[in-house]
């Protein structure tokens, strides 16, 4: 069977007859190579040797549309459908007969061009004598001009000698050509007579605006194509006549050049009232101008000077632009229901109790409310629009408050001055006006100078920044609540193979119901959640946690619902160890916390419905990212990192942000800190990201960050972690010991020789060891607590300084410390398993070196030389030999050490290695005694069972032996 020949496919290129011929040839070739078709047979039916396989192959090759034709349009019987030659013949007849005139006249296509194109297509048809009539009918039905179509149809109503006149294609084409030429001439004459100026704005391809040059420019009195002031040559130029900016002297309307009379200003007034006809459509593409103005007839007060803005509504996968009229006197945004359904057919309209009151005391009841996420200059804003039912043609309205927030309006309330009317004669009007202008300008300049002086005097110098100034100067940043959304709306990607789940409702304690309802109402007011009445596929339970201040935190519990189907956007969340090397030479720190961190991320409509949860009085869904979803931490870390990108002296883990200052002196570090902090606060103010004023740790040499204490000397464990370990109760089972050891391991980098101290506790976690808590374990348990409480401060790693490793190994554990300038950077310890304990001592010492180098590879990479201190003299001699001359079993380990150019030495005197000086500890003796005790206990059990003694007596014997063994262990400890 042929396997290299490609499977035939029915490809459609527009020429169905030709496509069918190609498909039939490919199918026969494929069947011939598979021995399904034999050309040696006489008839076509006999050539198809294996008709069933050929029919199956033919059906598999057909496109969905061709398969529909095969089933319903060929008219074959059930027996004929099993014969390949019958099916192919029917397909040839169907697609061959479908060739016809398919060209219709287009608006931009001339009559001559259409005639040439359509005759080329008709050459492939087989209509013979009907060709002229069919082309004529196709031509008339495809005309874009209704007037021409009616005229050509009417030509067939004439009668000649009692018979109906027959209109030929040639006559129709000649009439159409005459009509085309007449229409073009008439359009030219109409354009020449036009006296009004029309401005056409193209928002699709950023093309230049076109305007008639008939009238002079309002600002320069010249002739140019652009109609906006910023494109005028006089823009930002100073007038030589009046001294103001924005126009030339020849176009000056102030006293001196253009007299103050109404007659002299009439041309400029007429130009200002010029009527523009703007044709703007809502498009999905980029809009060049976001704000434009249309002026209508000034005689109609309601149509005078309307300003429009283009709002970019951000959707999940694309954005949509909506034209809205700016109404500075309006206090709410409105959108007509017909425009909403036209451009957002699937959007959900929420219920509202609001009533719109007009200036004419007319009340309008909205249909509901919708929320749009609008983008403006890189920022995202959530705007509420009331849906109203108004006559067609009315645009959406943008309120003055939101227009100011978006930057379309700039309101200067402090620049409004009172004006007193003074009666003077006409001749002194100009002179008095000049004097008043000069006095007013002088007062304004003095006021601005005083304000600038007073403001600059309050701004501290770098290095003298205070917390009071930061909270006062950046008061908007530290306001409670949420700012602008952090990035575009979030979309939660779900696995379609996971079936949706409705979690069973959990009952809330009666004493908490009122507090829960108040918390839910507060979230609704803050637009974090909204009630849900429609059916949803997923339904989670509500999770209630209590904050340290006594308030309730409402979360969802998606562990058994959407978390099982969410596709996580993998983004690595950094650890504190990865951030510490950036703090080299850091001496001053400030910690800030993002206010309502997760709630700064907006959810799109589909993702919002996934977060539906049950409350005491109904269902709710989140509009912002909730706590608890599996993709939340990674998504927030990515957005927060993008927000802080480009800022120096700033690190973050989740919503905790650390600002630090580096320098050789405290003064340099303080200035660097203030510069970095101001840069962060400026970005937060620019993008409206809110920070918590209650959680700020301002400009200190010691701050708490992610469970650690960052100081100017180094890093230390956080008090909360140490206190949690000290207050842990004594374990009562193997799982309790494992929990305790896990918490201790979190702080192991601060504790040298930790593996030695926890050895008795670690032995209790073995599967084949019975859990028996003795004085040895109690002593080790308390020693670990005291040892962690007195842990060492580690200095920050400096990539420019050389490193030294101190390693040591005992029979049960190995340990090491990374040093720079003689100060520890981090500690490590490791308990040997049963196989590693059988190593020789020289192999254990080499294993300690290799383990430390592997663990601290991120610190050692790139170092030209590494100094390793060990107390095992043979290692120093071995590493001086070539690798080929080493005979012991740890040759692979020595090759790793040589690969990083390590220099192994045995220090002398005070520099003697002390990392694991517990090599001669009491652990072997303890193991021996515990082994003897275990054997003795088993022996006593056997004897008791044989003697038939009671269970109480057996327990008394065991207790007696335990006390005896504990006494021996205590004596060993004292030695």
UniProtKB/TrEMBL annotation:
CDD domains in alphabetical order: retropepsin_like_LTR_1, RNase_HI_RT_Ty3, RT_LTR
Q: According to the lineage, what is the superkingdom?
A: Eukaryota
UniProt cross-references to Gene3D superfamilies, sorted A to Z:
3.30.70.270, HIV Type 1 Reverse Transcriptase, subunit A, domain 1
Molecular function per GO: nucleic acid binding; zinc ion binding
Q: Report the protein name in the record.
A: Transposon Ty3-G Gag-Pol poly
**What is the originating organism of this protein?**
Paramuricea clavata
């Amino acid at each position: 069977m042929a396997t290299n020949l490609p499977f035939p496919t029915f490809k459609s290129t527009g020429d169905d007859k030709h496509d069918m011929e190609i498909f039939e040839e490919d199918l026969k070739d494929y069947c011939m190579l598979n021995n399904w078709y034999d050309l040696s047979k006489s008839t076509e039916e006999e050539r198809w040797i294996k008709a069933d396989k050929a029919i199956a192959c033919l059906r598999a090759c057909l496109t969905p549309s061709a398969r529909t034709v095969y089933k319903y349009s060929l008219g074959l019987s059930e027996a004929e459908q099993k014969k390949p030659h019958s099916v192919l013949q029917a397909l040839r007849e169907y697609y061959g007969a479908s060739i016809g005139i398919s060209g219709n006249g287009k608006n931009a296509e001339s009559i001559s061009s259409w005639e040439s194109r359509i005759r080329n297509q008709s050459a492939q048809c087989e209509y013979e004598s009907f060709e002229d009539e069919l082309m004529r009918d196709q031509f008339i039905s495809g005309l874009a001009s209704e007037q021409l179509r009616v005229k050509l149809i009417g030509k067939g109503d004439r009668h000649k000698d009692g018979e109906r006149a027959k209109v030929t294609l040639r006559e129709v084409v000649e009439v159409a050509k005459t009509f085309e030429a007449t229409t073009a001439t008439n359009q030219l004459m109409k354009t020449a007579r036009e006296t009004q100026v029309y401005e056409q704005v193209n928002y699709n391809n950023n093309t230049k605006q076109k305007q008639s040059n008939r009238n002079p420019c309002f600002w320069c009195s010249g002739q140019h194509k652009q109609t906006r002031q910023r494109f005028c040559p006089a823009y930002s130029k100073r007038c030589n006549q009046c001294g103001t900016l924005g126009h030339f002297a020849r176009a000056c309307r102030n006293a001196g050049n253009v007299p103050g009379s109404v007659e002299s200003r009439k041309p400029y007034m007429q130009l200002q009232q010029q009527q523009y006809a703007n044709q703007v459509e809502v498009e999905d593409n980029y809009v060049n101008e976001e704000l434009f103005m249309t002026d209508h007839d000034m005689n109609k007060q309601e149509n005078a000077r309307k300003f429009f803005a283009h709002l970019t509504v951000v959707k999940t996968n694309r954005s949509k632009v909506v034209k809205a009229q700016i109404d500075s006197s309006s206090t709410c945004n409105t959108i007509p229901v017909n425009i909403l359904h036209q451009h957002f057919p699937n959007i959900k309209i929420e219920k509202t109790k609001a009533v719109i009151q007009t200036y004419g005391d007319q009340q309008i009841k909205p249909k509901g409310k919708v929320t749009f996420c609008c983008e403006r200059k890189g920022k995202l804003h959530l705007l509420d629009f009331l849906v109203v039912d108004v006559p067609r043609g009315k645009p959406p309205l943008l309120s003055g408050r939101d227009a100011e927030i978006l930057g379309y309006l700039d309101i200067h309330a402090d620049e409004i001055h009172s004006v007193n009317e003074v009666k003077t004669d006409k001749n002194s009007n100009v002179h008095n006006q000049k004097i008043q202008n000069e006095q007013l300008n002088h007062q304004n300049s003095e006021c601005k100078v005083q304000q600038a002086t007073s403001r600059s005097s309050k701004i501290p110098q770098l290095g003298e920044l205070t917390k009071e100034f930061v909270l006062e100067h950046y008061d908007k940043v530290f306001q409670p609540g949420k700012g602008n959304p952090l990035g575009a709306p979030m979309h939660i990607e779900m696995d379609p193979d996971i079936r949706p789940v409705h979690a069973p409702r959990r009952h809330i304690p009666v004493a908490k119901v009122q507090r829960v309802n108040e918390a839910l109402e507060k979230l609704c007011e803050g637009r974090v959640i909204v009630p849900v009445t429609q059916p949803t596929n997923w339904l989670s339970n509500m999770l209630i946690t209590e904050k340290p201040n006594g308030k309730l935190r409402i979360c969802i519990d998606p562990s058994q619902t959407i978390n099982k189907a969410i596709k996580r956007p993998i983004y690595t969340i950094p650890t504190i160890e990865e951030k510490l090397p950036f703090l080299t030479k850091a001496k001053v720190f400030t910690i800030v916390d993002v206010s309502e961190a997760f709630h700064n991320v907006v959810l799109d409509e589909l993702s919002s419905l996934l977060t539906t949860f049950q409350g005491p009085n109904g269902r709710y869904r989140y509009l912002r990212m909730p706590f608890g979803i599996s993709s939340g931490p990674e998504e927030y870390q990515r957005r927060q990192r993008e927000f802080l990108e480009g800022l120096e002296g700033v690190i973050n883990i989740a919503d905790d942000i650390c600002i630090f200052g580096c320098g050789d002196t405290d003064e340099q570090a303080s200035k660097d800190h203030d510069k970095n902090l101001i840069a962060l606060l400026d970005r937060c103010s620019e993008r409206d990201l809110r920070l918590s004023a209650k959680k700020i740790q301002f400009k200190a040499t010691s701050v708490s960050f992610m469970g650690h204490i960052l100081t100017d000397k180094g890093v230390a464990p956080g008090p909360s972690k140490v206190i949690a370990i000290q207050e842990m109760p004594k374990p009562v089972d193997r799982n309790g010991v494992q929990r305790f050891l896990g918490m201790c391991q979190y702080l192991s980098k601060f504790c040298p020789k930790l593996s030695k101290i926890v050895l008795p506790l670690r032995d209790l976690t073995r599967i084949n060891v019975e859990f028996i808590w003795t004085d040895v374990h109690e002593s080790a348990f308390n020693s670990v607590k005291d040892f962690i409480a007195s842990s060492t401060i580690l200095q920050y790693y400096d990539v420019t300084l050389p490193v030294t490793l101190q390693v040591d190994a005992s029979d049960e554990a190995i340990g090491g410390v990374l040093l720079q300038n003689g100060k520890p950077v981090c500690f490590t310890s490791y308990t040997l398993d049963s196989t590693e304990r059988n190593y020789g001592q020289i192999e254990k010492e080499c294993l300690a070196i290799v383990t430390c180098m592997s663990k601290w590879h991120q610190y050692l990479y790139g170092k030209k030389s590494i100094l390793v201190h060990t107390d095992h003299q043979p290692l120093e001699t071995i590493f001086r030999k070539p690798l080929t001359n080493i005979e012991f079993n740890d040759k692979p380990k020595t090759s790793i050490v040589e690969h990083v150019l390590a220099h192994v030495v045995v220090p002398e005197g005070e520099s003697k290695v002390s990392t694991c000086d517990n090599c001669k500890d009491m652990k072997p003796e303890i193991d021996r005694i515990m082994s003897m005790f275990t054997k003795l206990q088993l022996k006593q059990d056997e004897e008791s069972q044989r003697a038939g003694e009671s269970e109480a007596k057996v327990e008394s014997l065991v207790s007696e032996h335990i006390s005896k063994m504990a006494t021996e262990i205590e004596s060993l400890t004292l030695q």
